[in-house]
Each structure stands twice: as structure tokens, then as C-alpha cells.
Amino acid sequence: MNFVALQMLWGDRAKYFGLIFAVAFSTFLMSHQSSIFAGVLNRTRSQIIDVPDANLWVMDPKTEYFDEVKALTDNDLYRVRGVQGIEWAEPLFKGQPRAKSFDGTFRVVIMMGVDDATLVGAPRTMVLGSIDDLRKPDAIIIDRPGYEFFFPHEPYALGKTLELNDRRATIVGIYNSSAPFTNLPVFYSRYSQAINFVGRERNLMSFVLAKAAPGVSDAEASRRIEAATGLRAETSSEFGWQTIWYYMHHTGIPLNFGITIAIALIVGTIVAGQTFYIFTLENLKQFGALKAIGVTNWRIAGMILLQAVTVGVMGFSIGIGMTAAFFESTKNILDLRGFTLLWQIAAGTGVTVLTIVILASLVSMRRVLVLEPAIVFRG
Amino acid sequence: MPSVLEMPAIVAPARPAFATERVSMAVSVRNVTKEFGTGDNRARVLRGVDFDVNFGEMTLLVGPSGCGKTTLLSVIAGLLDPTSGGLSVLGENLNELSGSESILFRRKNLGFVFQQYNLLPALNAAENAAIPLLAAGVPRKRAVEQASSILVDLGLEQRLHALPNQLSGGQQQRVALARALVHEPRLIVCDEPTSALDHETGQAVMELLTKSAVRPDRAVIVVTHDSRVFDFADRIAHMDDGRIAKTERN
Predict the structure, then answer these.
(1) Planar angle of CA A262, A264, A265, nearest 5 degrees
(2) Nearest-CA distance from A359 to chain B in Å?
(3) A292/B140 touch (CB, cutoff 8 Å), yes or no
């Protein structure tokens, strides 16, 4: 009877394709929007991800997320260095100066200042140049979007200059950055240079980057730093997630994406359910005949479920394929970097689609299961 | 050599479910009533029906519209439960069967020919005719082959792969007839099999029904108000106002 179930489904081409389209569209919307949502939130911790060297971030206890930082004092660096179990600790500065090119083009940029001596925190994914060149005077490393903003249509080349806070900055390197949340260019410089590019305040150090000594876990190192200094110490992962949760709680991003995803879910369910129901109504006599002939309710329920799952699988495959194709086709667009279809989103969408089609089929199933087979004798 | 007392007892094989006794009467209905609705809306459609159908015969159930023919047919086929009365079909007391037993009994022993054919529009003629076998779990290839053989006997060898919407009314009814016969049932129930057909086609279908369906070990009940098919019957039961008014041999 599985053959009969599938033939009934395929035999009504209009409804079959209507069902597949509804499920595919719903799948595409849910998976696409979920992926964009995940990508957008992931961008909030880009600069944290881009620091490969340290796995501990020490900050003022009032600092809630990466983009708004209460500066530490210079003493805090030494206090962290003095904690037992810490292999090393170096300063990290973050500011947002305005950069200007020779033709007057200007933009607010994110300026990261890494330790002058060790360059801990500098990016590793260089496209051109070397981070060691940060030791040169007025040196900065710029990310690819930043370079393409200030020097559009020009090939990548070192030695170009920008003006920051009335000071000259010379590009000694171009690197691949994780896309930041605000889509601003991200520059790196030495700590002493960066604070000049931004302008002096009483306290400037944004973070202390630290590494636990061998044999000491990150959790233990964090606990010791907090106990000894009163500062907050978190691993890269913890700080990254803290930043993500801050945006989740303090912006409309989850709500807006959630609404879109909910609409996709509801519309998909309604359209699929409606189409399934009409399909069942139009075949009610045939289902009645099957019941009269001796097909059990369980078998008929199984047939309807098979039809639902078939539509679900086909629609899901098309929809998820569309999402994957979208991200594959846009992966080389600089402004859209970092957006991808995560397997967790694909799996979650699959489970949701399965729920949609089963819910959609339940109403139809009920109609058939309560059908009196004697209806076929009523002309 | 062991004595008789030491030999294992000879046990008759267990009687299979729904084993139909060799009874001369295929259907025996005794004082069956059927009511629908409750309270002021109660309608008494069958008012104490006594009705017999013999093996090897085609029995027509005739009467005006609304007299209860289709309801009686539904009760005999096990599609409706009687409100009261006794009902024996192929030796089985249908009142004593559970829901699932009733379905299995129907699947094995009954064949249906409906007024509107009720063919599945997405299946071709052979596949439609094979449905009772598919429902019984027969592999598709074998079921379709068996159904095709019956369709050939009914003159549809050129139309085995045609969809219902590519068949004429008479051809569709022949497919429905094949579907009713494919699993070798012992009782065939037909509800107005010719009402949707013209005279000539209706005659042809009744001839086929008589030739293919009526056998010494099978009974056929036809509900009809079409007097043109009376000549095909062995017995005609006239029904009126929920009762069998008279029965006559043809």
C-alpha cells in the first residue's frame, strides 16, 4: 500500500508541487534566517576570535561585552602578572578613532593596540606583509574590507598612508579579519602607537590578555585572577558568549529574526496543512473505498504519514539546498563573509519541517480515520 | 511398538479465523433493524429485515429510493452495525467480530462494486484492480499480474495501463469488477453498478458480472432500482419502507 500512497500523492501534480513548494520555501526561510541570525551574532565576538594567542581575557568587572569597555589601570597589568599560575599577561587596547585617506574619505575604524614587545593579540591570517613590521614607525595592519574601502579598485599594496588623529599611519600589512558586527574596518597597531592614534585619556588599557601556566586550567587561572585582583577573568569562549548574550538581551535582533522564522514556520504549516486537507477531501471517496475493501485505519494512517514525510523530505532537500547554494554563492563577497549554514541549523530545520508535515497531515488523517466506509455506498 | 495409549493424540488442525463452513446460505439476515440518530432525530431505516442469499445465485435487492437497500447492503457488508437482529455472513456472526476482525473478514471474503466506481485516479487499471491484493500484503508485481489476468478476461487487455480518466464508464466499471474479483472473494456486493451507465453498457457489465462473478461457491448481491437488469437475477427481493416486502425467483 506504500506504492498506492505515493501514487496518490504524485498523481495530483498540482497539489504535490504545491506541497513541496510550501515546505521548500518554509525550509529556506527558516534555515536562511537562522543562519543569518547566527552569523550576525557571531560577528559580535569577531575581535575575540581573531586573537589566537591568549585564552584568558581580564577586564573591569563592569564590562559586559566587547564593544563597550571600561579601561583598566596600568597597575592591573602587573597585578595579573603577579598571580600564581599565570604564564604571561600582556595589555590590549581597543578604541574607535576616525581614519582619513588622502582624498578625504573617512570612516570610524576599530583600532586594536597590541603589546609593543611581544605583539600578543596581533592577527595571524595575513594576506600581505608581516606582523613583525608592526615594530616599524607609524605602522598599522589593516583588514581587507578596510583596505578596499579606503583604496577602492586598487590592488593590494603596502606602504599606503592614512591619517588618524592628525598622525600619519603607514600600512605595513593586510589581513583577513572575521567580519565585525558593526562592519567597521579593523586596524592593528602597537599599543603605544594605538593610544596616540585614538587620543589620550587617563586610563587606556581595555583588556589584559593572559595565558595559564602549564598544569593550571583556564578555569583555575580565571578564579585566581579574580580572587587576587577583583577584576573579571574569562576564557575567550566565555567572553565571546557573554558578548553574544549581551546583544541577544539588549537589541531587537532575536525578536526580529524570531518573527521572520516564526512566520516561515506558521505559513509553511498552514499552507502544507491546507493543501494536504484539500487533497484528502478530494480523495475521501477513494479512502472510503479502501476502508470498505479492508484497509485498516492503521494502514491508512501510515499511508498519509508516508505521503507527509515524502513531501517533507523533498521539500526540505530543495529548501536546504537553496540555503546552502545561497551561502556558497556569496562566500567570496567580503561584506557577507562569515555567514554559513551550520549543521545544527540544518538539523534543527529538518526536525521542524518534520513536525510541520506531521502536524499538517494529522488534520487530514483525522478526517479519514473517522470516515465511515459506508459513505461509498451513498453515491 | 508403543500402545495406542502412548501414541500422541491426533489433533485436528486449528480452525483458521473466519473459516467459512460449507453452508448453503451465504447470507442470513434475521429481524435486523437499523436506526440512525437519537431522540427526536431518530430514524428507523431497517424495520426488521429477514433476507437470505444463496451461494451460486445473483440476488437483486430492489425498491424505491430511501427504502433502505443501501443500508441493508452496508450492514451485510459489515460497514454498518445493525441496531438489533441476527446476521450471518458466510457462516460468521458479524455481530461477534471485533472491529479489526471485521476488517480482516471483509478484506478476505468480500468484493465490492460501487456505483461511482471509486477507482483511484492516480493508479492505472491493473493497479486499481490489484488493490485488494496489495491490501493483503501481496507483492506489487504479483498483485498487478494477477489483476491484469482478470482484466484480460473482462476484455480490457488493451487498457491495462490506462488511467481511470482515460477509460469510458463501462471500462471503469469493468476495472471495478476486476477489483471485486481479484482476491477470489465468496461474496460480492454491488451497489447500483449500472446506474451511471447507458443501457448497452449496463447490459454488458451485467453480463460480465453474471459470467465472472456467479459461481457455486460464491454469492452476488446487487442493489439496484434499474429494472433493465432484473433478467440477470436468480432471485429478486423487493424492499419497501425498511422491510423485505416479497421475494421472487426469476
Answers:
(1) 65
(2) 25
(3) no
Amino acid letter, residue A86: I
Per the CB < 8 A criterion, the answer to whether A170 and A161 are in contact is: yes
Q: Are A109 and A97 in contact (CB under 8 A)?
A: yes
Per-residue confidence (pLDDT) for residue B243, from 0 to 100: 92
A10 chain-B contacts, CB cut-off 8 A:
122
**Number of Cβ pairs < 8 A linking chain A and chain B:** 87
pLDDT score for A202: 73
Report which residue type is found at A55.
N
CA distance A376 to chain B (A): 7
Q: What are the φ and ψ backbone dihedral angles of B231, each rounded to 5 degrees?
A: -65, -20
Measured distance CA(A245)–CA(A95) in Å, rounded: 22
- Decide: helix, strand or coil at residue B226: coil
What pLDDT was estimated at residue B23? Answer: 53
Distances (CA, A) of B229 to A20, B1, B107: 48, 68, 27
Chain A neighbors of B192, CB-CB under 8 A: 379
Show residues of chain A in contact with B107, CB under 8 Å.
293-295
Distance CA A273, CA A5 (A): 17
pLDDT of residue A378: 62
Domains of chain A by residue range: 2-43+252-378, 73-230
**Alpha-carbon distance B136 to nearest alpha carbon in chain A (angstroms):** 8
Partners of B33 in beta bridges: B47, B84
Reported ipTM: the value is: 0.82
Distances from the Cα of B82 to the Cα of A45, A52, A289, B13, angstroms? 73, 81, 20, 33
Nearest CA in chain B to A10: B122
Residue A339 Cα to chain centre, angstroms: 6
| End-to-end Cα separation, chain B, in angstroms | 63
C-beta separation of A110 from A232 below 8 A: no
User: Is A294 within 8 Å of B110 when comparing Cβ atoms?
Assistant: yes
The CA distances from residue A21 to A34, A326, B10, B233, in Å, are 19, 17, 65, 53
**Average pLDDT per 10 consecutive residues for chain A, totaling 379 residues:** 90 88 91 93 89 89 89 92 93 92 90 93 91 94 94 93 92 90 90 88 86 93 94 93 91 91 88 86 86 90 91 94 94 86 94 89 87 74
Residue B9: its pLDDT value, please?
Answer: 41
The answer to whether residues B193 and B226 touch, using CB atoms and an 8 Å cutoff, is: no
Residue A13 contacts B where some CB pair is shorter than 8 Å: no
Please give the single-letter amino acid code of residue A330.
T
Residue B198 makes CB contacts below 8 A (sequence gap 6+) with B169
Q: Are A46 and A178 within 8 A, CB to CB?
A: yes
A298 touches B: beta carbon within 8 Å? no
Beta-carbon count within 10 A of A149 CB? 19
How far is B123 from B164, CA to CA, in rounded Å?
8
Amino acid making up residue B198: D
Domain ranges of chain B: 56-81+96-249
* Cβ-defined contact of A10 to B122 (cutoff 8 Å): yes
The CA-atom distances, in angstroms, between A221 and each of A106, A230, A234, B149, B215 are: 42, 13, 9, 83, 93
- If one looks up domain B56-81+96-249 in CATH, what number appears? 3.40.50.300
Contacts of B106 in chain A (CB under 8 A): 292-294
> Helix, strand, or coil here: B127?
helix
Task: Using the structure block, give the residue that is written with the C-alpha cell 583596505.
Answer: A147
pLDDT under 50 in chain B at which residues? 1-22
CB contact under 8 A, A4 and B116: no
